[in-house]
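Bumping with the actual sequence this time:
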Amino acid sequence: MSQIAGSLGALVRRLAAQDECHAYSESNMCRAPGAEPECGVNCAGGEFRDLAALQRALGGCRVATSTVALTHIHATSNLSGLGLESLQEIRGHLALLNTSLTGLQGLAGLRTLQGTLYVLASSLPSLAGLAELTSMGGLQVADTHDLSLAGTPALTAVRGSIGLLRCQRLDTALSATLQAIDGNVTIHGNTELKLTGFAGLATLGSAASLRELNVTGNHLAHPEWLAFASLDTVYGWMRITDNANLERLAGLRNLSRVTKALEIGCANLTTLEDLSSLRRADVLHLDSRNTALATVRLPQLTSVSSLNLAFDQASADNDNQGDRLVLDRVEFPVLEEVHDLYVGVSRATTPPTRGLLAGGVDFPALTTVEGDLRLVGQSYPAPHTVPMLRSFSAPLLSLAAAELRVQHTTLGVLDLPSLKLINRFQLHNTYNLSRVTLPLWQDSIQGVEVYNNSRLSILDFPLFQRIGAGPFHIDCSAPGSAALSWLDVGTMNTVEGHVILTHTRLPNLSNFSFLTKVAGDLDIADDMLLNLDGLAAVTEIAGSLSIACPAAVICGTVKLSLQEAANTVKKFEVQATSCPRPPRRRERRRRRRVEEEEGGEEEGVEEKEVDRKEEKLKKNGAWQLRSKLMR
């Protein structure tokens, strides 16, 4: 209590310092004997610790020119009978600090409060008595119990912020006539909170004045959010997190736009269907505190700058619900454009005990991701691999302008049939991904990196053409990495970076037959590669050339072309078996004689016929050449 008293005293001194008029004292009392009649119109405020002093200072006054602070008044009173009914305006703050007032009926004539109404550590049951109050500069309520904000039926505007903090059994039932709040709204740390009221508020903030609506860390007496029933737009940020017992957002059914970030994370929230009118948010952030959500479907959301489904395992490790899923399905049926799209796990320090997003994410209308598209989980040692995003669908997606990254997920197949442009493609450390199909992908500006994927066997990019300024790097050398059975890079002819193929276990490089230019190193290391003929078209290698494929066969023409392509490099190493020469004519004759002696007459006839045809072709060719020279 001493700490509360000290803080209240500091608050009173601060409020008084903000006023331009002097606080009340016996020497400057307006109602002193012999005062002019008009002196009773404007009176100075001050700090009052008993009702008698309050009556002497403001009884009969119409305007209090400075802050009026009632502190440590424990008399049973509703301020009636003190002559305060004539008070119509307070040009400072009205502070009720550590009082036991039973009501504010004595202020029934108050219409305007230019400052903030403070109700701190008081047992005031309601704001009943302020029936004529139309506007106030702000509202701050803290450390009260059993208080209802009902009782202001004429209130239309709050010109500052509203803060409702650490109260017990608070009912936020402000008048339905309240239409404007020119400040932030913070409702935090309250127990047995009744989240009602604010029914007439349609807009919070403005385009030129961004605000915040924060409802965090409360324990609700009722599972439904019933406040802000008419709220359409929040110009700024909206945060709904850590509210125990909150199951539905029924009061937000008309919310259509949050111009900055909308963050939702409540353990008992079972559905987001009450956000069915939401059309636009700059950032939408759903994290793993939403442990009771099974599905997320926002049917009208059309525009998001950043969509963040980040499951941080905040409460999953400590629950006793086995392997129940956090989210089984996420769907945004009409969302067409997003700047950044992130689906993943963040800030998880211990292996999870259950699936984080074991279902799928569907974007049936999504066409453009202007920034990054990331499907990213966390790395845990076996046997802690848990379901994390089993499917991802975006059939109309054509542009991922920055980066497409898939990492540490249990995604089985990645099929993006309309995707044409990816700036950078990264596929790292996936657990179940077996196939990646991008049938229309043509160009990458910053490269392709694929490595350490446990089950990946197919990379299918049939229309791929070039890499503008990065590597083409596929590495399957890590323990547990799967062997590629199919790699289709289309007509890829230019890589303005390195080409690195490490233990891909491909039998040949036939799909690299269009490759002509490598602006960096060409580095191939594979014990299973059998043929290097696919590199025959390479004419330029700006970096070093290193081929370590002891089982591969490289013919002279291919080796020569690689030597010519890399004639300016510092390093030239080729470890491969030279292509065997075809048997000469004399050797064929010797073999034929041996076969004839062994009784292979039929095969010998075939060899003679082959030799006869070769001689005829040579003669015809020589005759044609001689005729051409004579002409």
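The tokens above came from a reply further down the thread. The first helix runs from residue 2 to 18.
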